[in-house]
Specification:
alpha+beta, 240 residues, Arc Repressor Mutant, subunit A, 2 domains, four-stranded antiparallel sheet, Jelly Rolls, globular
């Protein structure tokens, strides 16, 4: 780790926000190799983290020794916003990454005196909640193809790729995030390619060829869920 003296803040970085100008004096730059943990579940919360470049995954330990992937974060995303004194889940580098760490004490001092800073962090927390809601919607689907279609749409444009999608995470990570087996993920990718909906440029990059059909797969799951809900309501009415 090293101090941030001399580092130019990126456009959307907290360091580029006048409300957080004081953070530069205490912030640290952390370089992580692939697979290295930024923090682990159960560790005390001591800082807020902003990704400069690379990709970080959130991991949640499961009973029995397994674990789930609960989120992927890229450049500009902020980690460590959750409530509680300890981290409920860990954060690991999917690829070599650079992260800024902002210790809690100076951060809290800024928040106590700046409504603008507090508002910025509230926006970031809201974005995190929206991302978690997206995963809940994904896991609520019954079909593997629909889950993967929604995952692809969620990943689209994160690197300014337009119709392209950069998948730096492994198939196993995608499976853990989507609540599927690695085999199911591979089969679903194969079906999407065979139907001409997506095309792989390389193992880690794909293009969305037929956006309308991808969205139709996503919408179909929502219609099925509403159909089940309507059927359940009708059944309850019939019993009353």
């Amino acid at each position: 780790m090293r101090k941030l003296a001399g580092i130019v803040a990126q456009r959307h970085s907290l360091l580029a926000d006048p409300a957080f100008a004081e953070l530069a004096a205490s912030a640290l730059a952390i370089r992580l190799g692939k697979g290295v943990a930024l923090y682990c579940a159960g560790e005390p919360r001591t800082a807020l983290y902003e990704i400069v470049h690379g990709t970080i995954r959130n991991v949640l330990p499961l009973p029995g020794g397994g674990r789930a992937v609960t989120g992927f974060h890229g450049a500009g995303d902020v980690l460590g916003l959750g409530a509680g004194r300890v981290h409920a889940e860990g954060a690991e580098a999917v690829q070599p990454s650079l992260v800024y760490a902002f210790p809690h004490e100076p951060l809290m001092r800024i928040l106590r005196h700046s409504a603008a800073a507090a508002g910025r962090l509230l926006e970031l927390a809201r974005a995190e909640l929206e991302a978690r809601a997206e995963q809940v919607a994904l896991l609520g689907r019954k079909d593997a193809l629909g889950r993967l279609a929604l995952f692809i749409r969620m990943m689209q444009g994160r690197d300014g790729e337009g119709v392209g999608v950069r998948l730096v995470m492994s198939r196993a990570d995608i499976a853990r995030y989507c609540g599927l087996s690695s085999e199911a993920v591979s089969r679903a990718f194969r079906v999407l390619v065979e139907r001409g909906i997506v095309r792989f440029r390389s193992r880690r990059r794909l293009d969305i060829i037929d956006s309308a059909r991808l969205d139709a797969l996503i919408a179909a799951g929502g219609k099925r869920r509403r159909g089940h809900a309507n059927a359940a309501t009708a059944d309850q009415r019939g019993r009353s």
